[in-house]
Amino acid sequence: MRKIAIIGASGFVGQHLTEYLGTLVTYPVSRVELTSSLESLVRLLTVNDVNAVIHLAGKAHDLKKSSSPEEYYTVNTEITKKIFDAFLASDANIFIMVSSIKAVTDDPDSIVTEQDIPDPQTDYGKSKLYAEKYLLAQTLPENKRLYILRPCMIHGSGNKGNLNLLYKVVRMGIPYPLAAFQNKRSLLSVDNLCFVINELITRSDIESGIYNVSDDQPLSTNRVIELIGEITGRPARLLKVAPGLIKVMAKIGDIFPLLLDSDRLNKLTGNYEVCNRKISNAIGKKLPLSAEEGLKKTIHSFFSDSLGRRHL
User: Fold this and answer.
1) What is the CA radius of gyration of the chain?
2) What is the pLDDT of residues 47-57, one digit of tens each?
3) Contact, 232 vs 305, CB < 8 A?
4) 203 domain-assigned
5) Residue-wise pLDDT tens digits, 93-119
6) What is the domain extent for residue 12?
7) Does residue 77 form part of some domain?
């Protein structure tokens, strides 16, 4: 039986992954404390006869910009180095690092592939890239495999962020004023991510390497708004305010604490397409959920949560 150490099991992806694996087979899971010494990590992996290490923990991108740059490099880079060193010194065979597509770029001008030369501009993206470079620079024994996954925006039950904001806008009947922007953005259902991870830990025919992970089809923000309206029974009110005026308002939001600033505007209206062809070809199977199916499942979870709170 495969034994797995999940670092970051209490986080958003970690909780979903633990539940996902539990529905397939009972995987013995060890929880690793990030404060453990290198020797303690090696001992934990060895004593528990761990076969696969899944590294999910990290310092997420801070939209409020209240985090210091040092926090990103301490957590995302240095701790990842320590965990990977422990993996190399142990008998575990598989290491999966969940990095980020932001390790490649923050504002792509074309569809992002694994062949793109990384050029992140934020400390978050840079810290992820530095961790990737360290892992790839180490000598990997023949009996070990290394997978670096670069997911785009992950969503699912319990998700927080811009999807929640859009959901609240539609639920409250507020017109969405950014409909004049036409865009395409790749999303990733957490169920599809869990499916990919399970394939990597249960098969031996997938080569080590870097893999972008996304749903198969990109969606426009307008389409996301429409889907929310369909599920909540509150038809989307798409308002096409002049983009020039919206951008001026976002610039003001960069200075004053408004709901919209340039960063959020870009996340809602900018293009960010990710090519997942490499991982799809490697797995040779269709992802469980289409982009719209996965998004509908997430929206349904928001709707169910709001109904539950209303009846408390």
Assistant:
1) 20
2) 778 899 999 98
3) no
4) no
5) 999 999 999 999 998 989 999 999 999
6) 4-151
7) yes
